[in-house]
Amino acid sequence: MAIYVTQIGKHRFICGLFWQSLSRPRELLREARELARKIDSDLLVLRTDQSTAQAGFAHSAEGARRGMYSLGAVVSKTLAIEGAYYDGEQQPVHNWLAAFKLPDGQWAYFAVRDANFLPNGDFAGSKEEVLERLHGDYGLGGWNVVLGDPELADYGFHNFDARGIESLIPRRKNGEIRVHRWWGLQQRQVRRPYRRLAIAAGLAALALGGGMLWQQRQRAIAERERDQALAAMREKMLHLAAPAAQPHPWGTQPAPLALARACVERLAYLTPGGWQLDDYVCTGAQVRYAWTRRDSTAALLRAEVPGATVELSGDRASYALPLQLARKPAEALLGRDEVLEPIISQLQLMGIAHQLASTPAPIQPAGAGAPPWLSYSFKVDGRGLAPTTLAAMLERPGVRIDKLVYRGGLWSIEGVIYAK
């Protein structure tokens, strides 16, 4: 990973560390230093979150410096403490993606699976580079939440939490950053006091005459082992950094018509206790209601929907329920024109407003050739039509619905069309 240093407030933060898990709880620093020596890194930082321990590695030859703060370590610690809002509530989060705009205009990207940074999950670059990584990892599925700047809210990520990088850095009451020493990179090798070095030098001089041959042999063995370990670790890093084979994302979702029917069947609480429905959002994972109080009370709402969550203001409330549907197996895709043109023509014929846009192709390993599929995001305005009618039009190979929204008495549908 390329090292990138940015300034936030008065402090310098670093992105692009290579992360590895640690397995010896009582010897974390020693284990981290051993790993650093094997992969030829002279700087490291330790993080311990949610019963997991990792070390992030960097090298001073790439611009890293002792005392620079790991931005990834800061963000992960904040999320470990605060959790994140997804599936209708604030809760612990172990699988997350994040993309944040930095004060200097570049973007930072983080990918954490099972509370561990992926080896290549700490990255900074242009917005285009970060979005390419984000879309590629997002396609693997299994993420609890995607965090990022509000300007990414329209990209259609499931469980998106709009937050800026500043909101994830702890602050003092006066607004300054509350720095913690463990954020900082430390040197792999501990510097010995001068006196101890002098003693060691004296002993080495005494042993020099009789032990020169033995030292040369040991040095040759150590250098050979180091070269072998370094070559193996670099090979592993290259393997890990290469994008994994992408699963078929359309094979992880229910069929359009099945989802639409389930969403319509579960639309039950339009005016519970006199509260007004603001919107109803249905995905393959859950349904979620949001209401405004009007002239009613929280007690009347709870009498009809006991599980509703009322905001502290007392004027807004929400309610979420899980939704489990059978996934439609990944079918063979049609060509771009074969799948897009019939849908567009039918929508035009019926006078239905729609939006269609190309999305970034999945990341391919170097030399792998053309991407395995194309994808296009879509949004359809129901114009008073039943969502099952719209879904029936979308019941084609490679077409999947991400969410259905009921607002103001009208439905809209968002999803993705995949083509070869």
From TrEMBL:
| Alphabetically ordered keywords of this record | Membrane, Transmembrane, Transmembrane helix
Q: Which residues cross the membrane?
A: 197-214
Supply the name of the protein.
Type 4b pilus protein PilO2
Superkingdom of the source? Bacteria
Q: What InterPro entries does the record tag this protein with?
A: PAP_PilO
Which is an annotated Pfam family here? PAP_PilO
